[in-house]
Each structure stands twice: as C-alpha cells, then as structure tokens.
C-alpha cells in the first residue's frame, strides 16, 4: 500500500461488486450497460473514476450519484411506550397507502423523507418501545433508502457472495471453510501449488490472491477445460496468470504410469458446452462481454489439416475468382493459425507435465463435486514430502472413505477430519444476541501432511497407521473398533 | 527452510518439528553437535538431521522412529512455548481472510503475546508486506524479537514495546489491516483508525467477553467504521472409526413352547435354532465427534474504515 494514496479507483472493464446491506452482486463495469440490483435499475457510468468503497444513490434517471454524508438528526427525547401489551397488529396502523408511497417516490422524494413520512403517519409508532422504534426505522430505511456501495472484489467478498447467491456452483463451500483451507494448506507466496476444484474458479482465485503472483499453480481440470468464471472477478493483474498452468485429469493416470503423450488432447465439443454452462458467476443477464471472453475454453477441437472451409458454392466468374482467391488465402491463414494454437497448446501441456513429474509440489487443494478418494490418491503423488494437503467435500461420508484409503496407502500423517461452526451476532446496547438464522453446514475438510512414502513395506505402513491413530481408550467399548 | 519459504533439506539453524505420533510433536532447533531426547531414544542432529530431507523418517537410538517436518505457522501454533493464551488456527484462518491479507499487506497487531498469530500474519504478507506488532510487556516483546530472528523472518516484522492504547502502532495512514487482542480494545480504536490507510482498511478485534465486544462496537461506530460485524467460529473434529453395532434379538415370529422372547438361562433354549448367542453385527464407518470440544475462544468483530 502506498503511503497516503487515496485508494483504488473504479475503472471501466473492472469486475466490481455491488453491496447493499448484506447483499452482494458481481458486475462488469461497462458504460451504458443496464444493471439490475436489489429491485433497482441503473447505469454504472457515473461510478467510473470514483474510489472503491464509495456509496451511491440511484437517481430517478437510473444514474448513480455519490451519497451525501448526512448528519443523523440527534434524537430529541422521542415519545415512546414501555411494552406492547396494548399494541394490536390489525394492519391498519400505517395511514399512507401503497399509492401514496408510490406517489412520493415518483415525485422524487428522497428515501430519508419517505421514512419520516411513514413514521409520522403511523398511529402506533409513539406507543412502541424505543427498541421497537429503532427496529422499525432500520427496517424502513433498509427498504426506502436505497444506497449501493461499490466494493473491490476480494476472497472475503466473493466467497460470501457465492455462498449467499449461488452455493450450488461452489458445492456449498462456506466462506469460513474456504478460509480454513487457505491456512491449513499454508498457501503463501512462492509455493508450487496443485489445485483441483469445481467451484467456478473461486478456490483458484482465493489461492492466487494468497500467493500474490509469486510461485506457480497447476490447476487440474475435468473435461475440456478449467472453469475460471469467478477467478476473473478478482481482477488480478496479467502477470499473475503467467505462472498459472492447467492439466487435464484425464491424463493423470498416463502421466503417473509414464505413458503420457500429447497426441490426443481432451477436447469434446460437448465439454466445451459444459464449460460455457458453468461459467455463470456474474450477472443475471444472459451474456456480458466479460463472461463471453471467459467462456472461451482453453481448448480447441483438433484440426484436420485437409479440412476445406468453403462455405458457399458460387458460380465462377471474374469477381468470384478474386473473391475465391482471397478466401483461400484467408483459409490458409486460419489453418495456419489453428495449427499454431494447437502446437502451442501441446507445448504448454508438455511443460506442465514436466512440472508435475518433478513430484515436488508444495501443497494440494481439492474442492470438487467428485468423490475425493481417487483424486487424492493420484494427485498426492505429485506432492513433495512434509507438505500440507486439504480436501473439501460437501459431505462427510466420502471423506471417511478417503481417510481409510489414505491410511492404507501410508505416507501421510496428522490426518484430521473437521468442520467449522460459524455464528453471527447482533451487538447493540442491551440487545446483543446471536443472529436468528445460521448456516446449517458449510462442508467438511480432511487435512494432513505428507511424509516420505515407504514403498513396498506394507508392514511398516500398517505400523505407521497404528502409530498415527489415537491411543485406545482404557475401557474399550464393545461397539468401537479402531480402524 | 524458513517459515515463509519451503526448503527441501534440514540445515543447521533450522527450526524443525519432530513428529512422534498422533498429536505428539515438538519443535527443535537444529544445531551441529546437539542431541535431542525423545521417548524413542536420542536424535543426533549432526548425523540424523542435518542434510536429511524434510518429511524423512528418523530412527532414534532406542529403535523407535519419528518424522521430521518442515515448520509452518500452523505447526508452530500447535507447538510454541506459551507465554500467554494464544490464538489457534481456526480463528487465525478467518481473521486472515476477513482482513483481506495477502502478500504485500501492511498489518498492525497488538498484543504480540506468544507470537502465534504473528507468525501466521508474517507468512501471509511475505515477501513484500510488513507486520508492526506492539507488546506492552518488555520480556515478551524481547522474546518475540528473538524468535522472529531465529525463524528468519525478522526483516518482515517490527516489534514495538509500548502501550497501544496510549501510543498507537507507530505507523499512520499506511496499514491495510489492524488486529486487536487486548483487554480494552475500545481504547485503541482511535489509534487503529489513524494507523489505517485512508480508504478500505480493515480492523478486527478479538475479545472473550460480550461486554468488551459491546464497548468495542460502540467505539467503532463513533469513529466512523462501517460494515461492523461480530461472529464466532468453532472447530468440530471427527475421529474416523469403524463401529460395530449388535443386532438385537427380537425373537421368532411363530409361537413356540418356551414363550415369547429370548431366555438364555432356560436350558431348553441352549443349542436350539432360535438361541442366537452369537448375535449378528453390522459394521460401518463413522466420523465420531470428540467427547469434548472447544466451546468458546472469543468473539471476532470486523469493520471497515471508509
């Protein structure tokens, strides 16, 4: 952070996150692009150039306007009641009708004023207790004083947003669980990380943020290509991507057995469609330009060199001949370009395979919809000894199996199966308590540390397994059999 | 090795972690000529450690063996000598993420305590960030400085021996984040605000008691912090066990002479087809919670300077 710098400015082309209260939404910052957020429609044009963290109001014309700092009117000792024994909720205490309120809004009356009107026209307001009045005002403000803050994306913001809006896309990985993964995995600058995730690229982005562009990451991917929709929201500078590699899961076995080759590349048109489907982390609108660039998978269908691309059959005449000649030139260039791209792809793949073959990765992070056991058993082969690994699973049971298989394999210690319990609080004078709703579950983690694997000594690995287990309790219950 | 960069082989001067078995480990300063006693025997640093790969199995003099692990802030947290109550990795994880820490971040912390969080913060902000940590206890401040030196991270941290409530953190308008774990955090909110950069800085206060939290939230509001949010996080660990449950004997459907139910003392039941002395069992794998778990460490309050 530079000394005294005012902060980062909102630029066109950025991915920004809109925030209203506890609600977040990621949007691309583009001029004349209509945004719908929290029942409001507006353009972001006026936000460009302001500093991230600025709060705006939506004008009647659908434009953003920085909110003026308004001094909260110090409450003159308001009239208030002591309890609600005489307050009857008949739905008639508010004298303003829906139409009245709409008329106020249409007149351009500010939210603050509308709230004031609602208070004055409520017959029961002065009978409410001070706390109830406070709660009432907060509720009306939330509804009518529509302010939006434009915040800079970060792991904190994006993981909270995804968990609230699209938990299915991230296998219900709650943000505190993600936080545990990053720390348990000792993710830091300079690591050589292996990441396997199907969380729209959120986990990858979080890892990249903690590595600050230093070190390298190999992302393992299923199907045709890695999904990085969420990753693009982070707004990382381009150099961060120089050391981000990818490798197809479908080639892992061949790599481990030494039969790897780049002859057949994983690229079904089907898989490309899958990639497009999954990369919808941004707006509700169908296609934004940001999304479009992200949807382009990193794979291309293998080109047949003899493929002719003439789309139209035309009668040959003088003009057509020239046209045809130009088109042939164009086709040749396309073919050459595609060949180049494919050659580059193969080259990158070979390089990434070489990186994996070194078997010296500094850590492994797995967070996917797939059963974790086969992933761990194979990908751990690429990790150096005395390095942490963390596996996330939405469900506990697959991790039980994973744990058992890892014990059989050996070469891992300090295995721990855990979950975190998260509770938010309301803190107000005389009104502090945990909040009313809580997440029921945020997924499970299995973590451990690799050690030098004693191959071909099944006895010693069993001994190790026994050693790594909890010591048997003194009174062994009939039901318990330690595995 | 270093707490901020992985190394492959054990070197003289390293801090390594000796792993003896389930939840049994301790840190060791590797030095030529030194020996370390373990319950499995002696480990001679010069022959058994120096030059060996991290993650290796080392056989001790009595024949038992251990693993030597590369240090990480998480392993350090589990094994460091306590001078005060410390923060554990569960809280440290959420603090790190909610403060938006990353390489290059400037972060302020008070009190330093035993350095558990400090090591984790240094690891996260390395190689271009910095930790300014304030400790009002002179010996603890000195011990922290010594440890940071031994661990090769002293270039990333500045330890100041003063009272943060009176004299602040020693920096102004630069920090990306501030962390408070002190008895009266509300007295330091003003200093925290002036240490933080102009826009977007994050603050976290850790307090065991709700009364402290209430006062701190009020102070944060008074000083103009936004997005004030209090939470707590707890860790639930599961032991993976194979469980066998007996199938109960519910007797036979058809009536017989000996009446309903199973009576093992009745001699006519011995050896008869219905006498199932060896009950069937069903086996399954289970993630069994521990008998006791940590129920509370402290409340974490986060806010933004805007």
TrEMBL record, chain A:
Keyword tRNA processing: yes
Pfam family membership, one: Gcd10p
UniProt keyword list: Coiled coil, Methyltransferase, Nucleus, Transferase, tRNA processing
Coiled-coil stretches: 318-346
UniProt GO MF annotations: methyltransferase activity
Superkingdom in the source lineage: Eukaryota
GO terms for cellular component: nucleus; tRNA (m1A) methyltransferase complex
Protein name: tRNA (adenine(58)-N(1))-methyltransferase non-catalytic subunit TRM6
Organism: Cephalopterus ornatus
Automatic annotation (TrEMBL), chain B:
Domain of life: Eukaryota
MF annotations from Gene Ontology: tRNA (adenine(58)-N1)-methyltransferase activity
Region spans: Disordered: 256-278
Protein name, per record: tRNA (adenine(58)-N(1))-methyltransferase catalytic subunit TRMT61A
Residues that coordinate or bind S-adenosyl-L-methionine: 114-117, 135, 163, 181
Gene name of this polypeptide: Trmt61a
Comp. bias regions, Polar residues: 257-278
GO cellular component, one term: tRNA (m1A) methyltransferase complex
Quaternary state and interactors: Heterotetramer; composed of two copies of TRMT6 and two copies of TRMT61A.
Matches recorded under Gene3D superfamilies: 3.10.330.20, Vaccinia Virus protein VP39
